[in-house]
Predict the structure of Transposase.
Amino acid sequence: MDEGALARVRERLLEFGSEMFAGLPRVDQRETGVRYLRGLMLDGRRKSMQPMAARLGVDHQQLQQFLTSSTWDAAVVRRRVATSAVQVVTPTVWVVDDTGFAKDGTASACVARQYSGTLGKVGNCQIAVSVHAATDTASAVLDWRLFVPESWDETCVPDEAGKVANVHARRLRRQPVTLDEAGKKKPHVRKQLPREEQIAQILRRRAASKIPDDQRYRPKWLMALEMIDELAGWHLYPPLLTADAGYGQVAEFRQGLRDRGIRFIMATTSTTTAQSGDAEPVETAYAGVGKHPAPRYPHPARSIKALALDHGAGQATLVHWRERLPAARTDSDRGTGTLSGHFFALRVRPAGRTVREGLPQHGGVLPDCWLLVQWPPGQDEPTDYWLSDLPPDTSLTDLVLLAKSRWRIEHDYRELKTGLGLDHFEGRSWIGWHRHVTLAAAAQLFLTQLRLTDPKAAGQP
């Protein structure tokens, strides 16, 4: 927005800010919160503190103090943003996703060389996990978490015996080898610091970024469950949850949703293993020694790709799931019409020993669910797979519509990063990062309200 457009919605912004910042204890904090929202929404290439302060005509120290050393609790604002977002959007799904924030240095909280879908490669970046409320017409962020890499957690440093204290790192610990171009194993050539020096270095970095002691490395899917639990504590519950294959392929994540009574439809990889939906375990003969064996499936689990290939491409049906959005540029040659593809759905029973052992109520057997498969005509094999615990009478069209509902989240990230400076924060502190992304989410929600309540209202991008 330019100054004139923002002035035209000034009263609405003040009303919005009074609602979002009502939990802040001091008047000056509430006023600075609204000022920060104005800075994020004003036109400008950079939305870091100094450029924003220049456009707002204030001392940048005021914004910096508000973000890094003031006493307000970002979770209080985030709760109000999330509660309002659910009311504004009225979501049909919640979406779990993560995004990367490219960084040049090594001092920002939790920055490390790690894979980022935003970069499309391994790079120096921060990773954030987020939960969004979405429909086909609107979406908004509900919660954020900054991912803590193993290199920022001293409990992930192995001892002399190669063991680590962090249970999540212990489970995912890889052998100290990598692959060369031919795919053969070769030892790491990077020199490792002594254990004591590694720990001291991590502790210094954590202290400099003021990372709370209870924030440790854990997988992103577990962070997503933590946010879902936090939102439930705010009396917010998903009508359905969807995520990409990075989350959907994790049996513990799917089971965590089942345990919470949350329906899901999530992408997964072709190597995910399952039995056919009608498979049943059979009794195994007792050898007369030790414990009686548990019932077992008569045949090994197979990849869902193999199950789909057995079903055959001829079973796929053309399904239309939504209208194609107009092109961003008028000179684009992209066609109009509906988005469509060929799909079929099977009932399968996912495999997974880790989760299965924790399900005595099911006799050690995971419940059956839907396997949705997209197989374009002329292709030798399917391109996409989803697992869902929606009821057996769910139609193929409904499965496809819900499976494809993640697209709105790319709009969220694009608007937050290109328009609202989500990734422009230059501070190094943990609390500063979480405050900045909370305020960026609030700014996005305000713009979403403008779009939904009056599509022609002045001041919209």
